[in-house]
Amino acid sequence: MPLKQTIDTCFDVEVGETGLSREAFQAVLGRARPGLAWLREVHETGALPLLSLPARDDDLAGIAEAADWLSADATDVIVLGTGGSSLGGQTLAQVGGWRLPVVGDLRAGPRLHFLDNLDPVSLAAAFDALPLETTRALVVSKSGGTGETLIQAMALLTAYEDAGLGDDVKDHILGLSEPAVSGHLNKLRKLLEPYGLRFLDHDPGVGGRFTALTNVGLIPGALMGIDPRAVRAGAARALEPVLAGADADGVPAAIGAALAVGYAEHHGIVQNVMFGYGDRLERFTRWWVQLWAESLGKQGRGMTPVPAVGPVDQHSQLQLFLDGPADKLFTVIATDAGDKGPRIDPALAAEAGQPEFGGRTVGDFVASQQRATVETLARNGRPVRLLQVSSVDAESIGELMMHFMLETIIAAHLLGVDAFDQPAVEEGKILARTYLEEM
Ligand SMILES: O=P(O)(O)OC[C@H]1O[C@H](O)[C@H](O)[C@@H](O)[C@@H]1O
């Protein structure tokens, strides 16, 4: 089933005075037309390579080969890289089983580890605990200049040296960075290439947080058995109405962008909650946080992304969502959970005083929770849109990711900001370097 978006519970008639009027929404949606025209134009000219990815297959053999190389005879594969060089891969890998309770740990094949947060204690413990001889590493940095990734790569080189594997580094590490350009220093390449190891090219035209559909996201996904073709087929589905020239009200991503920007402009609602039901959407919510925050948070504009996972966060954030300040727009991602999972013995259910559980599956229970969350949010005056997929698999995650990349780009057009840069974070990086020099 393709992604289905329902926005009935997003407007004033359903949620009361906190809701956006249909008229105001339509006015913002109309303003999405130039953004859609721009997307079509850059697709045609090739100026935004992201939009050509769903139809590409010339790079798939290289992606499969890299995943095979990393996993052959390996007990462990570590992925170094941060932000956009990690979160897309994490999202796809999770759909394949990485970092899922129990199933993740029981899965056959090499263990996969993303070291995206620079933590000295974890890094030391990881290098101590990993059997380095059978551990391979993928080191990812688009720019080749991110301090966290460089320092991790240096520490890894030393760890291999200390383990007596200094001469075999090229058999353990694969690099992934922008192609070398003469006159421009790529520090990661300069550090690693002398070891004779192989580097894959990061597409210079695809910004970090938009790389899930490139080798950056697809190699880690493939390591967990996620088929890159299926991911791209799902992405093509989300892109299709844009390329087909549909008007804004026929493009789900434009509708989502207009809702978010409409709420920000008309109601000052600048917090957006992504409530994904199911373990396989946990990393997806974190990937979306970077996408939404770094792409839109500029020049005093932007919306704050708030991630939540269901049903577990019903026992954590839902009280606030329902009864705290009415200052959020919600997106609930639901799956066809019904009929899935263990079926409950009626005798046990009766014994426990929960006869309604009897004969139902665990998925039936989750399905009713998804529905109840959407309805109670709306009844409490909280605008909520529902996105439904039949299940979280390679194709639906590709569709969700492309949907939200498009939604982000269109929202940036509506807000009048550049979706593709992140100028403000540079200041802190320069200051951190100064402090390091002073130590
Ligand atoms: O891939 P890299 O060049 O190493 O960048 C990794 C990340 O770090 C930067 O600080 C940016 O804020 C992110 O947008 C980027 O994804």
CATH class of the largest domain: Alpha Beta
Low-confidence stretches: none
CATH superfamily of the largest domain: Glucose-6-phosphate isomerase like protein, domain 1
β-strand number = 10
Assembly of the depicted chains: single chain
- Describe the strand arrangement of the main beta sheet, using strand numbers: 1-10-9-7-8
Q: Which architecture of the largest domain per CATH?
A: 3-Layer(aba) Sandwich
DSSP helical segment count: 18
Radius of gyration: 23 Å
What coarse outline follows from CA principal-axis ratios?
Answer: globular
Mean pLDDT: 97
SSE succession:
EHHHHEHHEHEHEHEHHHEHEHEHHEHH
Q: Helical proportion? A: 40-55%
Task: Find the structural class using helix and strand composition.
Answer: alpha/beta
Cofactors, ions, other ligands: 6-O-phosphono-alpha-D-glucopyranose
Count of the separate structural domains: 2
How far apart, in Å, are the first and last alpha carbons? 57 Å
CATH topology of the largest domain: Rossmann fold
Strand content: 5-15%
GO molecular function, one term: glucose-6-phosphate isomerase activity
Family: Belongs to the GPI family.
Keywords: Gluconeogenesis, Glycolysis, Isomerase
Protein name: Glucose-6-phosphate isomerase
Secondary structure elements and pairings:
Layout: E1 4-6, H1 12-15, H2 22-30, H3 33-45, H4 60-71, E2 76-80, H5 87-95, H6 103-106, E3 111-115, H7 120-129, E4 135-141, H8 147-162, E5 173-177, H9 187-192, E6 198-201, H10 215-223, H11 228-243, H12 252-267, E7 271-277, H13 282-296, E8 304-310, H14 318-323, E9 328-335, H15 346-351, H16 362-379, E10 384-389, H17 394-415, H18 425-438
Parallel strand pairs: 2-3, 2-4, 4-5, 5-6, 7-8, 7-9, 9-10
Antiparallel strand pairs: 1-10
Helix pairs in contact: 2-12, 4-10, 5-10, 5-13, 11-17, 12-17, 13-17
